[in-house]
Amino acid sequence: MESNNNPQQPQDNKPRHHFRRNVEENKTDSNPTEKPYRRYNKEKGQDESEKAHQGRTREMRGTGVNFTHFFSLPLNTVEFKLSAQSYMDQVLGQMSPNLHKHFDKQGLDTIHITLSMLSLEDDKLKQLAMAIFKEKEAEIIKIIGSDPFHIAFDHVSAFWYRESGNKIPRVIYISLKKDQNTEKLNQICNLLITEMIANGIVNTKDLGKMCVEHNKETNMYTPQNYHVTLFRVKNHEDLHQVNFQELFQKCQQTDTVVHHVKRIDISTRYFYDSDGFYRPLSTFLLV
User: How many angstroms separate the CA atoms of 88 and 167, rounded?
Assistant: First the structure.
């Protein structure tokens, strides 16, 4: 892992691509961030309990898939955190303070983009997934090319609850600007998911629950929606008074920064590293 989110750059400033496996999946030393299923919640002043973990896991299981890991782009740098906080402030600033309690902020330490969910429930599946990740290193390097890998934010939007003609957001997020780098992400995701399917790690019937779709025209497996979560919203009658479509349109794209993505992880759900981000099963550094 990079120390303090600031990995040391090579002295010759040329792009470097590294692969690292984290095989200490089940370590439980005295560091509270390393204990499975528990993490200190800074905002609420309490630990997330195993019971809460189990509840969220059941929610993700759908018809029986237990998603334990996910391909992610970690975005927990200072620049990303400032941008995300700016968007959060804009959203909350346009509604009455008494409504803020219905919005659960995304923790800035864990801010990320999900490429795909994964179910790696035993060591054999974990080792196989890591081996595939390693095997595809050269192809990922070729897709990315020699230039630094960047992404840019686009606009605020939401996934919605549907009820009685009113639209209440379930998740509020920032979408990614579609450009050549999101096309590169599509190619990387397709490369990895295709191999996961071929090796029996992924079942195509679970793609929707994995947040992945298959485009029949391009024959590619890609994320359904590139986004960065800002809030998870509690469905409440008080929110019916808010015109969220209009609110989102008023959220200006104040973030003009093109952000440098530094790594791709296989992240472990509900396990955390010392920097607060999800513990990586494997990390592929892009710098």
Answer: 20
- Phi/psi for 94 (5° steps) reads -100, 10
Residue 129 burial (C-beta neighbours within 10 Å; 0-12, 13-18, 19+) = buried
Q: Is 109 helix (H, G, I), strand (E, B) or coil?
A: helix
Domain ranges, ordered by start, for the chain? 64-179+227-285
**pLDDT tens track for 134-175:** 999 999 999 999 888 999 888 899 999 876 566 889 999 999
pTM: 0.78
Question: Helix 123-135 to helix 137-144 angle, to the nearest 10 degrees?
Answer: 50
**For residue 115, which of 238, 208, 212 has the smallest C-alpha distance?**
212
Question: Does the domain formed by 64-179+227-285 have CATH 3.90.1140.10?
Answer: yes
